[in-house]
Every structure is written in structure tokens, then in C-alpha cells.
């Protein structure tokens, strides 16, 4: 295709998406109004049915897939996913847009209806607006505009809406990857909200573990006859403050992690549980006087691509062993809950360079290349699906995710849809000729 014809096609494609601005806004609103809260995993089938109707109208072949047996899947809260595919006129590569359909709890502090999809000052408000129903809507409109403007194309387009990303993605992308779905895919774009002028190449690693310290139960008036597991856990926390946290702060990465504070290793104390269970809120009773014989702490360790998982685990065990060496009757157990290794797609990977050029064309600027501080479903596409050619790119401001009054900018959705559509044109469009 001559350069002038290609430029004309690019312009028509961008104009087509601009003309669909109201449809893009309305689609985002409709998605927000389906409260897909996770946990527990509400309304997954409802949103998949909604997407099914939309994508069938656009000529996609759709499949609804329940991740039976995955964590959280039950008859009350089944883990439903949708995968839609549209074949081109000729064989070629497959571009897959993957978005998660679940959203986190609403929390307090909202000034708008969390599931109202209110439009105000050029923004759509609601839980999941930026994380990531705005991105899902943008990918759908991008694909539909591409199909309307470019009738002669090759390969395949896939759009998926998947479950449980907010709780690990095991009922969604991980399940699809285990079933071999990504064996037929060549490029993956995940429209997570990393800002419209950024390409996210990957994420840090994560290791979750539960530490339990042991003691001996006794009457609270005679604690000297027992052994307080909470005090033992306090010694663990003190050792972490004295040695581990300073050591982690000194570890730095060459990964372009955002924000700046995440360019070091981090550890979050996710929860602490010691002694008897809390009294129910509707109870007027008092706790019984006992020395706690167990205390449990859940830790969330985020690590860098330069670190080895054995090193990460070893640092925690070293803390515990130092406490044991200096504390009488100290005993502990440690249990791994979850691990994900860091991943980072090569800057020269085809999907990266393609989206880079599309951002430059759409926004008239060079994109920033970043790495996410937390994991997202790229981990499963990489680790299980064995597909490295994957990035996150979509509308929305990362800092707004999970916050009250979450929103996505309509201009950003339009721009990101234009970038996605131009990327489809580059990867699947008519072949260029001199």
C-alpha cells in the first residue's frame, strides 16, 4: 500500500473512532452499571452475556467459558469468561485484547454513585471506570471501527473479558492459558490503566506468605504460666524493622517501575491475627482472659527482576532464624501462599514497537515505557501461555484504581482506542506495497 493510501486509511480510522465517542462513553457506562464485585464474584455471567450480545452483533464468534474448579468458583459465584474471535479474509497473525471484568469493593468516600456511570466534566465515574471497564470498552470500539473502515485484512482479532484479575486471575486468564488458548495468539494488549501515553512492559514479582508464631495458652491473669505468641510475633516485626526493611530499601532496579517508590524492593504487612477471634459487632460481651498460643502474619513481598525467588524467601527465613537464636522458646511455621516471578517484555518485541508507533501517530509524542509495581494478568500469559509478546496499554490513571470517585477520561478513551485501532491496522491490515 502506498504511503499516501496508508496515511489516508489511518486518518479515516482515527476519524471513525472520534465519531463513535458517544457510543464509547455509553458502552463504558453500561459496563460500570453491572456491579461485578470481587470478592465474591458477582454478576460475571450478566456482564459476559452483555458482551456476548454486543460482539455477536459485530460479527464475532463468541464462547462463554466457566472456569470450573478454579479458586472461588461455585454454583453461587461461577467464574464466567467470554472470548470472542473474528477471522479476517486471509490467514495471518492474531491480536488479542484482554480485559478483566471484575472490580474491587466500593469502600467509603464516594460523592457519586459507584455503579451509576455518571458523566461529568468529560469523565465517566464509577467503580471499575479506569480499572478497567473503560479499557475494555475502548478495545471493543477500536476493533469495531477497524472492521468498518478496513474490509480487507488478514489474521484474527480476539477480545476477551475475564474473571478474577483482582484476586489473582486464576478463574480467568490463568484458566484460559492452562487450556491452551494463547497457543493461537501472536500479540496481546491488556488495556490496564497505565496512562494513555505509556506502554507497560511488565511487572515486579510477588511472594505472599503466612508466618505463624507459636506459644502456650494460659490464664490472662497469670501470663507467666503461658507463652504469648503475639509477643513472639512482635519480636519478628522488630527484627524486620531493624534489618529487613533497610536492606530492601537499598535494592534498586533498572526496570522502569512506576511510581518511583516502587523501584526498590518492598514488603507490606498485609494482616495480623493473634489470639482469640474478635467479638462480633452485635455482641455486648467481653473477651475471655487467655494468653494467645498462636499469632499469624500475612506478608506481601514485591521483588525485582534482578532478584531470585530463593533469595527473597531466604531473607524472610533469615529474619525468623535470627529471632529464634536470640529468643527463648521461639517457634514458627511459614507457608507460601502465592508467587509470581517478575516479567518484562523486550522493547523491540513486535507488539511494543507497533503500539509505540501508533502512540506517536495519535498523540504526536514518544511514549514512556514503564513497569507496573503490582502484577496483572500478563503473568499468566507469560508463565502459563508461554507468550512473551504482551503489554499493558489502555486509558485511565493508575493512581485512581481502587480509589473512591474512580473515573476515566473520555478523551483518553478515544485516544487509546485510536492507538489500538492503528495497531490493528499495522499488524493485520492490507499489505504495504511500494
From TrEMBL:
Necessary cofactors: Zn(2+); Co(2+)
The biological process GO terms on file are: amino acid biosynthetic process
- Has UniProt tagged this entry with the keyword Hydrolase? yes
Q: Name one GO molecular function term.
A: hydrolase activity
User: What are the residue boundaries of the Peptidase M20 dimerisation domain, all occurrences included?
Assistant: 202-323
The record ties this protein, via Gene3D superfamilies, to: 3.30.70.360, Zn peptidases
What stretch or stretches form a coiled coil here?
none
Report the domain of life of the source organism. Bacteria
Report the InterPro entries cross-referenced here.
ArgE/DapE, Bact_exopeptidase_dim_dom, Peptidase_M20, Peptidase_M20_dimer, Peptidase_M20A
| Keyword annotations of the record | Amino-acid biosynthesis, Cobalt, Hydrolase, Metal-binding, Zinc
| Protein family | Belongs to the peptidase M20A family.
Q: What is this protein called?
A: Succinyl-diaminopimelate desuccinylase
